[in-house]
Design brief:
Helix content is 6%, strand content 50%. It is mainly beta and 119 residues long. Strands 1-2-3-6-5-4 form a 6-stranded antiparallel barrel. It has 1 helix and 6 strands, in the order E-E-E-H-E-E-E.
Length: 119
């Protein structure tokens, strides 16, 4: 992955923490997309509640993703083979720092399932 770093940041950027560009030709599944950012999902747990659809998402993230989760009205989606799951109304349950700019985060969100044809 190529990228440009200013002289003042040279040697301080960990390339392993960079997320792949959403425009890649790979058909990705089990990835959480938030704005222009994406996270690799480690675990999804759907709550069994007939009144409200909630999901717990554990994923790998960098600091930009963690920062964006605090944005109001943030929405994202999870791509599955035949469905696109809209996620919103986020709550951060846990943030675990792995190394430098890499985190494992667990968030809860409301969700709605849409057919992929509705992209």
């Amino acid at each position: 992955m190529s990228f440009f770093v200013s002289k003042s940041l040279e040697g301080q950027v960990d390339e392993n923490c960079l997320m792949p560009d959403q425009k890649s030709s790979d058909k990705k599944e089990f990835v959480l997309f938030l704005k222009q950012l994406e996270c690799k999902i480690i675990n999804l747990k759907f709550e069994n509640n007939p009144d409200i659809n909630r999901v717990s998402i554990k994923c790998e993230a960098n600091i930009h993703i963690v920062d964006n989760i605090f944005s109001k009205n943030l929405q994202g989606f999870i791509m599955l083979k035949e469905n696109k799951i809209l996620v919103y109304d986020f709550e951060i349950d846990e943030i675990l720092k792995k190394d430098s700019d890499s985190y494992n985060i667990t968030i809860s969100a409301r969700y709605e399932v849409n057919n992929v044809q509705n992209r």
